[in-house]
Amino acid sequence: MNSIDLSPLYRNSIGFDRLAALLDSTLSMDSSAVGYPPYNIEVLDDNRYAIGLAVAGFAPDELSINVEKGVLSVSGKKQDDAQHQYTHHGIAHRTFERKFNLADYVEVTGATLENGLLSISLVKEVPEAMKPKTIAINASSDAGQSVLEHAQTAQSDAKSARAQKDA
């Protein structure tokens, strides 16, 4: 199964274009490129994450990390190994690019390269305006009293207007 018809989603929804594009890109991804380099995604706590990529043999200047339009791209370009002659070449030093789709409000905060493991730190920072808030309910009798006084004032104004009209 290589495709899913997303037209019912478009008929009843607004603003889910990114979700549809994400599903489409995931389904059309080349499965041979998915395995290199191997990686882990770790949940550190409710709002912090870490991505670890096994990039043994790559120097920091051969790696690139970019974020654009909610997509984190990690790429590695290994310099040509023409000076070495191998009898067996089992360590992969090939060029790669791995992409991760980031949820809304997820930001990359840093990256470290240690012992062949590239660690990328992520944090989810939801703006205060988007966080759920609790609205307090006033239970004082003053609120009910002012509504009653307002209704009584409106009734007396209506009576005096009728009296003036009849006179």
TrEMBL record:
| Region named Disordered | 146-167
What are the UniProt keywords, alphabetically? Stress response
Q: Which superkingdom is the protein from?
A: Bacteria
Q: Which Gene3D superfamilies match?
A: 2.60.40.790
Record bears the keyword Glycoprotein: no
Q: Name one Pfam family in it.
A: HSP20
Under the heading InterPro entries, the entry gives: A-crystallin/Hsp20_dom, ACD_IbpA/B, HSP20-like_chaperone
Q: Which residues form the SHSP domain?
A: 30-140
Q: Identify the CDD domains for this entry.
A: ACD_IbpA-B_like
**Is ATP-binding included in the keywords of this UniProt record?**
no
Tell me the PROSITE patterns matching this sequence.
SHSP
- Report the sequence similarity comment from the record: Belongs to the small heat shock protein (HSP20) family.
- The molecule here is called 16 kDa heat shock protein A
Q: Which organism is it from?
A: Reinekea forsetii
